[in-house]
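Revision sheet: C-alpha cells.
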Amino acid sequence: MPFYISIIILMSWAIWMVRNDLILRGIQPSIQGCKDHFKREFALASLRAKRDYPDLMSTCIDMM
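Predicted:
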C-alpha cells in the first residue's frame, strides 16, 4: 500500500474517533483532538513500517 494511502486512512480513522467521542462520550470535537488521535495512530503505524520509513515517519510526527 502506498504511503500516502496510509496517511489518508489514518486521518479518516482519527476523524471517525473524534466523531465517536462526541456521540458516545459527549466530548466536543476539536482539531487538536483529531491531531492527537492521528499522532497516536501514526506512531503505531511507524512500528509496522518498512525499515526505510520509520525515520521519515518519526520526523513527520515531530513536525506536527
